[in-house]
Amino acid sequence: MEIIGDDKKIRALFSEAKLADAQATPSFTSQWNRAQSRALRPRRAFKLSLAAVTALLVCALISLALWSQYSQPRGTHSVFANVPARTSLASPVVKTPDEVPTNRVQTATVHRPSRSRVPRSTAQSGALTVASNGKAAKEATNIDNWQSPTATLLTSQTDGLFKSLPQLNENANELKSFLPGRANEKEK
Amino acid sequence: MKIDPMEIADFRTELERLHGASFGWALSCCRRDATEAEEVLQTVYLKIFEGKARYRGESSLKTWLFAVIRKTAATEYRRRLLRSLRLAADTSEANDLAAPFENQTASFERSEVQTHFQGALKTLPRRQREALHLVFYEDLSLREAADVMGVSIGSARQHYERGKKKLRESLTRMEMGYGNNWGRQENPSAV
Q: Do B114 and A1 touch (CB under 8 A)?
């Protein structure tokens, strides 16, 4: 690398700095000995900050475990216990509003057992099943009671005549009575 | 894990030979803070003594040692920064009182040009400053400088060129302030 012009000046400035640094350089022996003494110095068994952080973490974990254990709802298990078991999915039982156990959930929540040993997720799914069953029964009742708005147009006064057939041994007059009133008048 | 005492004894001779250059490099890595540089160098020797830093002969000893010093200085700097952030409230008052006096005494000892030069060096980005120091102060080639800095030779060259340009500009400004434009001497034939 050819050094020209200001490169020389920069180098000269660096050399000047190097000379100044050389005067301020500490002796190698003292540095080396200090490093050796540092190496031989017994280290602290544990760091205070590390211990504090570990203790905090342990406390947090314990409190989290306790909270998760005591915070689950107590009534869910009994609700699940009162749900009738469904034997087949092919024939769902649709109940009328009278049959739907609307007050079952209320009574179930009143009688709480002292301690729930069923896993939390199972109890929650049971409660969901009860709720969905009640909803299905209500919907089935609604569908059953539903009437079309045009249903009244399909009914007439002569519906009775059409529904009752004349007998074979009836005479003509009796047969005429079968015909609508207006047609009888024209014949007269 | 400690290394063999015989190995350490051989190593010690080599380290002693390079001690001056190592301290200069440590000074550069520690922004010319002599106390910090001493501490860094001590930590480097400790690492070598404990076998945490091992020379495997993949590069020259000087290049390897300088790379270790550079990494150690960076680690120490981060540690100091965290410590200073933690104790910011306590130390700020003490530093405000001590720093101006220290700077004044240091600047009296140096020539004015040297003081300005050091100031200009401090304004350069770290990589550029390192490249210039390794080439001009430690007489390393660009390849060796790249090895120490842990970058490619192309990148080291770029840092070196940019740093030199910035330093030249800064020094030219200073010379113009004194009525002597030495930057022009670079290429006297140019009009």
A: no
